[in-house]
Write a structure and sequence with these properties.
5 helices, single chain
């Protein structure tokens, strides 16, 4: 853990992958509802298809989510799962924010 000269935790502890507004919303939602469908995430995060896709790719590259593409009947369906690594990163993010807020 990085501590600054005044003995408080450093903001460098914040996970930049999670900290973006949309990615934060995605992780918060998936922490309680996993998997979630792509349309469900669009509704919950109030964003566009392209924007959600971009941010899911960033979370997936970090190993925090996994996208499962398949079909529901004849319709394409994408389900998004939080991974074990993603859940651990989410918990660490929450603990870090609490630590910084209490400093």
């Amino acid at each position: 853990m990085t501590i600054s000269k005044d003995n408080t935790p450093s903001i460098s502890l914040i996970d930049d992958v999670i900290h973006g507004r949309l990615r934060l919303g995605i992780m918060a939602y998936l922490s309680s509802v996993s998997p979630a469908s792509f349309p469900e995430l669009i509704r919950k995060t109030e964003t566009s298809n392209g924007n959600l896709s971009t941010h899911l790719t960033k979370l997936e590259s970090a190993g925090y989510v996994r996208q499962e593409k398949g079909y529901s009947g004849k319709r394409p369906q994408t389900l998004v799962h939080i991974t074990e690594e993603g859940r651990a990163a989410w918990i660490t993010y929450l603990k870090t924010m609490k630590l910084l807020l209490n400093a």
